[in-house]
Specification:
296 residues; alpha/beta; D-Maltodextrin-Binding Protein, domain 2; ten-stranded mixed β-sheet
């Protein structure tokens, strides 16, 4: 009897210990999987939007360490094609998806996160601070080739353009050049590189988002209107676009949390303004994909 009782107690104790170990192992496994499976977001596209998304994600990840967010350039065309193909999480664009050929916009969901103004910039030594829109068009279409023809120095004009997939180029040609195509010239994809080349090249002119303008170049006024945020807000400066963050279908909860953060007051009233963009809520007008402007 004593031997049988002892055997029963040993077996019972072993079962209880096994159960405890199994429970603890399960908890450790669940805990480990939560910490080893970060929410990964890859945002690709517009270089004009890139500084805003890059800065916002740094701040977001400080409070949400379980997120891994990568922000890359490549241009709006790249962002739209990659999100349409499902290759990335978010496609950043300066233009509506409907404006890009080959993109099925019906499958994409638009998340507008800011407005960006754009405008012509020149090398500091050309001797011009203002143009009429007609003069701007003549310069970019090659009809005017020397700065003296528009009141500047006797110096040949060097046009620096953006590639065909650039949303900045599409916006500039549509609203700055009234739909005219710029003359063939040197093309640069990166906004930062464009700014550097214009600053270093005698006679150079190109165009940049306000967020890239600084004192290394001269931002030109057009028809007496300065390239400023308040002039974009009421459309008196017409060269602007929405900054879109497209998803392929409705985003899941993790991605939506980051997109909601992009339009939160923390971002809109601080980072957006500090980097030279306009908060969506500051716009006094709304512009459709067809270019129709209505007051808010």
């Amino acid at each position: 009897m004593k031997k049988g009782l002892l055997t029963t107690l040993v077996i019972t104790a072993g079962v209880l210990l096994a159960g405890c170990n199994s429970s603890n192992g399960s908890e450790a496994s669940n805990s480990g999987s939560a910490s080893s499976d970060p929410i990964k977001i890859v945002a690709v596209g517009s270089t004009a939007l890139q500084p805003l998304v890059d800065t916002a994600k740094d701040q977001f990840v400080e409070d949400e360490p379980n997120y891994s967010i990568s922000v890359q350039g490549g241009g709006s065309g790249t962002g739209l094609s990659q999100i349409a193909d499902g290759a990335v999480t978010i496609g950043n664009s300066d233009v509506f998806a409907e404006e890009k050929s080959g993109i099925d916009a019906s499958k994409l969901v638009d998340h507008k996160v800011a407005v960006v103004g754009m405008g012509p910039v020149t090398n500091k030594d050309v001797g011009v601070t203002e143009l009429t829109k007609e003069q701007l068009i003549e310069i970019f279409t090659g009809k005017v080739t020397n700065w003296k023809e528009v009141g500047g120095k006797d110096q040949e004009i060097a046009v620096i353009n953006r590639p065909s997939g650039s949303g900045t180029r599409a916006t500039f040609e549509k609203w700055g050049l009234d739909g005219a195509q710029a003359v063939k010239s040197q093309e640069q994809d990166s906004s930062g590189t464009v700014r550097q080349i214009v600053a270093q090249t005698p006679g150079a002119i190109s165009y940049l988002a306000f967020s890239y303008m600084d004192d290394t170049t001269v931002a030109l006024s057009l028809d007496g209107v300065e390239p400023k945020e308040e002039n974009v807000a009421d459309n008196s400066w017409p060269i602007w676009s929405y900054e879109h963050m497209y998803t392929n279908g409705e985003p899941d909860a993790g991605v939506k949390k980051f997109l909601d953060y992009m339009v939160s007051d923390d971002v809109q009233q601080t980072i957006v303004k500090e980097l030279g963009y306009l908060p969506i809520t500051d716009m006094k007008v709304e512009r459709s994909v067809d270019g129709e402007v209505t007051k808010n």
